[in-house]
Amino acid sequence: MGDGTAVRLEPHEIALLGGGPRAAVTVAVVDLYLRGLVEADRPGTIRAGIADAVSAERAPSPLAQAVHACLHEPAGLRTLTKDPDVRLALALARIPLADAGLLRYPLLGPTRGARRHVRDLRQRHPLPASRRGLTDHDRLLAVALHGEAALRLLVPRFALRAGLIRRAEVGGKGLLKHSPRGTGGGGYSYCGGGGGGGGGD
User: Fold this and answer.
1) How confident is the model at residue 92, as a pLDDT?
2) 135: Cβ–Cβ under 8 A, 6 or more apart, which residues?
3) Which H helix or E strand runs over 154?
4) Is the dihedral of CA 117, 118, 119, 125 positive or negative?
5) Torsion-angle region of residue 163: left (phi > 0), alpha (psi -120 to 50) or beta?
6) What pLDDT was estimated at residue 199?
């Protein structure tokens, strides 16, 4: 299939090519959140909601279904990315991408054509000016292409509470170094601190 640029890619596949497994799982989590199937739990973790994944009019991707299925208890993004069933879903998602010439064998890194394709998509779909009027697919595509900037714009409260983005460092690192112990140091990979409460995004 040449360089694979004629293939229509789903947002989680674009994220996998552009940012790797963590980016793809982030898109899957946002997909589930937009469907009401997950919500933020303890700081930096996600838990399954009460809605039934099968009842959605368009089924979530196999990757999103794998993420949802492994949420027997609240988990952070790093834990989800390492879950064996999620890793299997990621491996299966890579197969058509490799067949389309978008991933190199044997290490399955993106090809030059894949990187160019993702760059072109970024130019054709810039970060939206606001979240108004966007479909869920538009939001997922923005997250796949623009990562943290899109998360901060489109689902800021959920992304922060669920550990999908890092907390801003107010005042720089010097301030953190001299701050009193026990005021919320570590945990940056999961976004560390509490919630900034409040409803939906």
Assistant:
1) 96
2) none
3) helix 148-154
4) positive
5) left
6) 44
